[in-house]
Amino acid sequence: MAEIINLRQARKARLRVEKDEKAADNRIAFGRPKKARTLQERKTAIEVARHEGHKLVGPDSET
After folding, report:
1. Burial class (CB in 10 A: 0-12, 13-18, 19+), 25
2. How far is CA 59 from CA 35, 53, 56, 62, in A?
3. Separation between Cα atoms, residue 23 and residue 25, nearest integer Å
4. Which 8-state DSSP code applies to residue 62?
5. Would you say 37 and 44 are in contact if contact means Cβ atoms under 8 Å apart?
6. How far is the CA of 55 from the CAs of 14, 35, 46, in angstroms?
7. pLDDT digits (tens, 9 = 90+) for 35-49
8. Residues 23-26: contacts with CB within 8 Å, 24+ apart?
9. Is the dihedral of CA 12, 18, 23, 24 positive or negative?
10. Tens digits of per-residue pLDDT, 22-36?
């Protein structure tokens, strides 16, 4: 005798799998959240400005 399946549950399970696959692809494509990206950009900008501020400028250097 064949096994009885609930078509509604089977449909929802299939959609859930497709949604999970799409989410995995998006995580790869888009990476970090915007908040994390902007925070890292700000930290990098501060570090660069601090580094540039410590440069010595002599009379024979080109500005």
Report:
1. exposed
2. 43, 17, 10, 8
3. 5
4. -
5. no
6. 60, 31, 15
7. 998 999 999 999 999
8. none
9. positive
10. 999 998 888 888 899
